[in-house]
Amino acid sequence: MELKELQLSHFRNYDQVKLDFQSGVNIFLGQNAQGKTNLLESIYVLALARSHRSNNDQDLIEWGQSKAKISGRVQNRLGTTPISLQFSRKGKQARVNHLDQSRLSSYIGQLNVILFAPEDLELVKGAPSVRRRFIDMEFGQMNISYLSQISQYRKVLKERNAYLKQLQAKKSNDMVFLDVLTEQLIQFGTQVIRARQHFIQKLGEVAHPIHAEISNQSEQLSLVYQSNVPLEKAIEDVAVIEASFTQALQRQAKREVIQGTTLVGPHRDDFKILINQNDVSLYGSQGQQRTAALALKLAEIDLMQSETGEYPVLLLDDVLSELDASRQTHLLMAIQNKVQTFITTPSLSEITRQLIDQPKVFEIKAGQVQVKESGQLH
């Protein structure tokens, strides 16, 4: 899968821009605050219909404008597909092959991307919410069914929490309605837990040999899914998960009404990243944490290809400066001639010049983009 063309209209600090990309490595070169990360962000938004930098779509619209539009031409094994997203105060409108998509779930998956940025180190040492978001964003691209399941779960969870707050404030005493919401929560929540277990198991299997190679066979990485629903082990039987979920909610029923919120469910789940059976977030060095994050990102590439039949587009946002020479080398060698890659960087380091074969370089200054010829790169 490749992004062959990108067109922006009133996106961030770009008024109008149209760019053509090559199959290998494309580099966005520029100093800070010139717009190179905005360009990378636009590709991410085009793929996932949301930004990784802001929860407010209005932030994506150029100052003084009422709407923004991102268009692209995606090529995969089946052919070429035009896709676009338009943002305005009324919301967002997605199109595939120039046809409006009534649901974003039918749009996401047209362009699959994996982003690796400095903040992805939080995947290893950050809060559980960071890892849950990682699962939802990455697995959601690979599996449309999961995208629907997590969407339905969040909808019921929001409604159930709102009703628990009514019960807390004694504005209602209809426990029958709460039972209906609880039943729906268990149904969708069980599907989410089972799907996440499956994803983490597969990701761990792919990441294990990659991590071993990066660490020169000195360390072993494994992933363990931790469900908020008490399970004796990583049980994958739907009936067992459903029964355990039901019992856990029954035990917390009074507390949930007192606190006005749902205390049990996959919205509180997590997964642990272990190196030699030790939690790397607690006992790992910074180097080990970076190696683990790199291994997971590289594993995602292969897993997405396995699950969808297509390699994703890789976005590297100023991440090379965060890796030492050895990890830079491993990353660049792993992606060479494998996936279309977009890299933001303030300068072309020697290691980049040596390891990347004929990159296409776009120099960015104050929202203006200029393609640099290969002879200008040294």
Automatic annotation (TrEMBL):
<feature type="binding site">
    <location>
        <begin position="30"/>
        <end position="37"/>
    </location>
    <ligand>
        <name>ATP</name>
    </ligand>
</feature>
<dbReference type="Pfam" id="PF02463">
    <property type="entry name" value="SMC_N"/>
</dbReference>
<keyword id="KW-0067">ATP-binding</keyword>
<keyword id="KW-0547">Nucleotide-binding</keyword>
<dbReference type="GO" id="GO:0000731">
    <property type="term" value="P:DNA synthesis involved in DNA repair"/>
</dbReference>
<dbReference type="InterPro" id="IPR003395">
    <property type="entry name" value="RecF/RecN/SMC_N"/>
</dbReference>
<dbReference type="GO" id="GO:0005737">
    <property type="term" value="C:cytoplasm"/>
</dbReference>
<dbReference type="GO" id="GO:0006260">
    <property type="term" value="P:DNA replication"/>
</dbReference>
<keyword id="KW-0235">DNA replication</keyword>
<keyword id="KW-0963">Cytoplasm</keyword>
<keyword id="KW-0238">DNA-binding</keyword>
<dbReference type="InterPro" id="IPR027417">
    <property type="entry name" value="P-loop_NTPase"/>
</dbReference>
<dbReference type="InterPro" id="IPR001238">
    <property type="entry name" value="DNA-binding_RecF"/>
</dbReference>
<keyword id="KW-0742">SOS response</keyword>
<comment type="similarity">
    <text>Belongs to the RecF family.</text>
</comment>
<feature type="domain" description="RecF/RecN/SMC N-terminal">
    <location>
        <begin position="3"/>
        <end position="345"/>
    </location>
</feature>
<dbReference type="InterPro" id="IPR018078">
    <property type="entry name" value="DNA-binding_RecF_CS"/>
</dbReference>
<dbReference type="GO" id="GO:0003697">
    <property type="term" value="F:single-stranded DNA binding"/>
</dbReference>
<protein>
    <recommendedName>
        <fullName>DNA replication and repair protein RecF</fullName>
    </recommendedName>
</protein>
<keyword id="KW-0234">DNA repair</keyword>
<comment type="function">
    <text>The RecF protein is involved in DNA metabolism; it is required for DNA replication and normal SOS inducibility. RecF binds preferentially to single-stranded, linear DNA. It also seems to bind ATP.</text>
</comment>
<dbReference type="GO" id="GO:0006302">
    <property type="term" value="P:double-strand break repair"/>
</dbReference>
<dbReference type="GO" id="GO:0005524">
    <property type="term" value="F:ATP binding"/>
</dbReference>
<keyword id="KW-0227">DNA damage</keyword>
<dbReference type="InterPro" id="IPR042174">
    <property type="entry name" value="RecF_2"/>
</dbReference>
<dbReference type="GO" id="GO:0009432">
    <property type="term" value="P:SOS response"/>
</dbReference>
